[in-house]
Amino acid sequence: MDILTGGVGISSVNFSNFKNISEIKDYFFIAFKTGESLMIPKDKIEDAEKLRNKLKSIAENLKIDFISELDWKWK
């Protein structure tokens, strides 16, 4: 998966390092087996629905959890 980083460059991520994928109202999170997470703000994505579908497909293929908590709020 290539991720454009604000016009600065492109980073590659190996799907096999994914632990799970989560979604809340304004963000997607990809948790890695190493303990780090990647936070993707939905308002910076041109087509968040398309990305959601792609992330769900990745989770299904990897047999990892896709966690959707759209009502979750920061405390």
Detail the topology: elements first, then pairings.
Elements: E1 2-4, E2 10-12, E3 18-23, E4 27-32, E5 37-41, H1 48-62, E6 65-68
Parallel strand pairs: 3-6
Antiparallel strand pairs: 1-2, 3-4, 4-5
The major pleated sheet works out as: 4 strands, mixed
Taken together, the total number of domains comes to 1
* Cα distance spanning the termini: 31 Å
Count the beta strands: 6
The parts where pLDDT drops under 50 for at least 5 residues are none
User: Order of strands side by side in the largest beta sheet?
Assistant: 5-4-3-6
Strand content: 35-45%
Instruction: Provide the gyration radius in Å.
Output: 12 Å
SS class? alpha+beta
Question: Helix and strand succession?
Answer: EEEEEHE
Shape: globular
Domain YcxB-like C-terminal: 6-54
Protein name: YcxB-like C-terminal domain-containing protein
Pfam families: YcxB
InterPro entries: YcxB-like_C
